Amino acid sequence: QIIGSNLKQTGVTIIHGHGKFIDPHSITVAGKTYTAENMVIATGRCPHHLDIPGTELAHDSRAFMDLKTLPKRIGILGSGYISMEFATIANAAGAEVSVFMHADKALREFHQPFVKAVMADMTKRGVKFIPSADVQALKQTAQGIAIQYGDHQEQQVDWVLDATGRIPNDDQIGLEAAGVTFSQRGIAVDDHLRTNVPNIFASGDVLDKPQPKLTPTATFESYYLFQLLSGQTTDPIDYPAIPSTVYTTPRIAKVGVTPEEAADGDYQVVRNHIPDDWYHQTDQETMGDSILIFDRDHHLVGATEFSAQAEDAINTLLPAIVFHFSKQQMWQMAHIFPSESAAAWHKIR
C-alpha cells in the first residue's frame, strides 16, 4: 500500500490485473488494450514445484507466512536461501524441522566453511539435515505426510515446504506474441537491459543474467532503466558490487571477491575471529568469523562474514569496495562508537 501510494503521488497510473502481450507495443489487461512506445517486463520469479507424486501436498513460502498455527513437524525440501531461513524461523518457533537436501551442500553461493558452521549451530538447536535426499514422492497417511526419499526411506511430517527454488515468471505473459526471446533461465537482454525486441526491456529476477536475484539488484536496474528511457544516459548498465545475505542464526553475508576467487589470484586475505573482538564480547557472541580480501594496493575488494550481525558489517564495508578507498582514506573516517559499523571498519584499517 505504501509503495502504491508513493507511485500515485509521482503520477504513475496503476492497473490491476493480468497483463499479456498481443504485439510488441500492446498488452491486454481484463479485456482492455494498452499501448506504449516502450515496454518493461519486471514480472520476477515464482516458486518452483517438484514434479513428483503428491506434489500437491507441499506448500510454498507464501503459504508458510499465512499459517495461523505452527505445525509440530515440518519437512523442508531444498537447501537454498528460503529453505535455510524458514528452517531457522520454524525451529525458533518450536517446530521439529527436517531439511531434505538434494545434494550434500547447502547455500552453494556462500563460503562453505561458514555454511557448515551455521548448519552445525542449527543442528544443535534441533534442526535435522538429511543430505543427498532424493525426494521421490509425498504421500498422505494417517500419521500426517510421508516424505519418501532415497532407497525406500521415509519420514512422517505434518506440513511440507517446497523450497526447491524459484523460476522466471514469464510463461503466461505473451512473450511469443511480442517476439521476445526467453528460456528456462529467464529473459535474455543486452547491456542496456534491452531484449531482442528493440522497444521491450526487462529488469529484476526475470532476467537471464548472472547478477544476484535480489531486491537491491532489481532496484538498481529499475533506476538505470528510468535514466535510459528518460534520456539521461545512453551508457550500458554498470553494476556495483552487490551484497547478499542469508537470514539464518547466525547470519552469513558477502560482497565482492570471494575467498574461493582470492585463492586463485594475487590478493591479501585477512581473517578475523568475531568473538575475539571486544565489541562482540559485550553481546557474549561465541561464534563467527570474517574474511577480508585486499588487492595488492590494499584496496578492499571483497568481504564475507558469518555472525549475529553479518549483514550490517558487510553494508558498512560497501563504500570502501565500491569507491576503492585507499588505506589513508579509510583512516579519515570516524564512526559512532561503540557500534557494529565501528567494529567492522576497524578490521579493514
TrEMBL record:
Keywords recorded for this protein, A-Z: Disulfide bond, FAD, Flavoprotein, Oxidoreductase, Redox-active center
GO terms for biological process, alphabetical: cell redox homeostasis; cellular response to oxidative stress; glutathione metabolic process
Domain Pyridine nucleotide-disulphide oxidoreductase dimerisation: 242-341
Annotated GO MF terms: flavin adenine dinucleotide binding; glutathione-disulfide reductase (NADPH) activity
Cofactor(s) recorded in Swiss-Prot or TrEMBL: FAD
InterPro entries the UniProt entry points to: FAD/NAD-bd_sf, FAD/NAD-binding_dom, FAD/NAD-linked_Rdtase_dimer_sf, GSHR/TRXR-like, Pyr_nucl-diS_OxRdtase_dimer
GO CC terms, sorted: cytosol
Pfam families hit by this protein: Pyr_redox_2, Pyr_redox_dim
Residue ranges occupied by any FAD/NAD(P)-binding domain in the UniProt entry: 6-219
Family: Belongs to the class-I pyridine nucleotide-disulfide oxidoreductase family.
Name recorded for this polypeptide: Glutathione reductase
